[in-house]
């Protein structure tokens, strides 16, 4: 039977930290317990700064605990594009920053003694097109890259061209995060889980955070590392797009490839070994789409299963399946630093490469707070507007958001009344002339919500594959009963009888 949970979530023991119980003061408040938040908090605490970290749910509960666990500077076939788009200097900075992050993560694992299945090995990007230029550009930028034979990937079907990056890393991401959390607390840091921040107020040279459980935290500096900044901070909800990918962990009928791979062509398929699945264990991630844009998200999982079946002639069903969300910027570079017109520091737009980009971001955030120069801060500048192409893409994206806001519920009503909602079924229903979101869980309990996002009022779509309510405008996601899973929303969905 397939478990609808990340393989990492199912196979890691995370230290538990209680919810915040009273008002607190600190030098730095970090909001978010993923890779960016934990790494930033650890860096600062080790520098003698008094840090509090607040996490809305559990450490690594969302995107950072649902990644592929690849730690690599090979972000698809990106480097020729970066040179064309930003010039050689900026492309070289991006390459150096992310390759440095690979080594930094390996160093942290070694120094902190974190048991997280870390292994070194090659990573491949492959394509039906010629990748010679990508290999040449990546090598020229200082990366450990070379053109490779397609059969080196270990996949039965490899395209016609491949680029190999040597000495890359893969690990168990949630065990890595657990190790960072332990090290942070041992250094004197404070972590509070189940303590969602709902509001930030900057005044008199300090920032005060209000939590959903009541207490407040006052800090000289605040870092918001919550995938997308909460609420409307910096307007990043309008400067990024939310994207969802899906993953499966499956046991093949033969030994799985020992390499990391990713296709440059659509549909993207990313693979890596799954140590917990034995020699035949494989993790496959792909089937990406904008959050809230797909009507049948179960089809995304089926497409991954079918791809495995076509390559290895098997009908094996996955042991685990899950999804992850991230945000992309229009110019392919993350936003890190102080938000425009605000003292709040943010990190967003990792474009699905959060383990390395997030580690780079943590260094920038640390150095910004401590008043140090950082070699990557200008490249990742959170206040940049971007080039003409980026601005054009933002305009296009926001016109699409406006259309979704106006017409998102049209032609998606499943039926009238709630008497015949089947077990395991969810969607939109007409109840006395009002649109209601409903889901009947496997215990027969009916959950109903007003399917309107509490961030800026966009209509929500039902995600059957993950049993969530998703916002296609800005990526907020909610449980069947309306609790917030992912921001920028901070408030649960209303109930139809309210």
Secondary structure topology:
Layout: H1 7-10, E1 24-31, H2 35-46, E2 51-54, E3 70-71, H3 79-86, H4 88-112, E4 119-127, H5 132-140, E5 145-148, E6 161-170, H6 173-186, E7 190-192, E8 197-203, E9 206-211, E10 216-224, E11 241-251, E12 260-263, E13 269-273, E14 281-290, H7 298-312, E15 320-328, E16 335-338, E17 345-348, H8 354-369, H9 388-407, E18 413-416, E19 426-431, E20 434-440, E21 446-449, E22 460-463, E23 468-471, E24 477-478, E25 484-486
Parallel strand pairs: 1-2, 1-10, 2-7, 4-12, 10-17, 18-19
Antiparallel strand pairs: 3-6, 4-6, 5-6, 8-9, 9-10, 11-14, 11-15, 12-13, 13-14, 16-17, 19-20, 20-21, 22-23, 23-24, 24-25
What is the annotated CATH architecture of the largest domain?
A: 3-Layer(bba) Sandwich
What is the arithmetic mean of pLDDT?
A: 91
Q: Pick out the low-confidence regions.
A: none
Using only CA atoms, what is the Rg?
Answer: 22 Å
Q: Can you give the helix content as a percent range?
A: 10-25%
CATH topology of the largest domain: FAD/NAD(P)-binding domain
Estimate the global geometry from the Cα principal axes: globular
The CATH superfamily of the largest domain is known as FAD/NAD(P)-binding domain
Helix/sheet category? alpha+beta
Classified by CATH, the class of the largest domain is: Alpha Beta
Beta percentage is: 25-35%
Helix segment tally: 9
Distance between the termini: 39 Å
| Total number of beta strands | 25
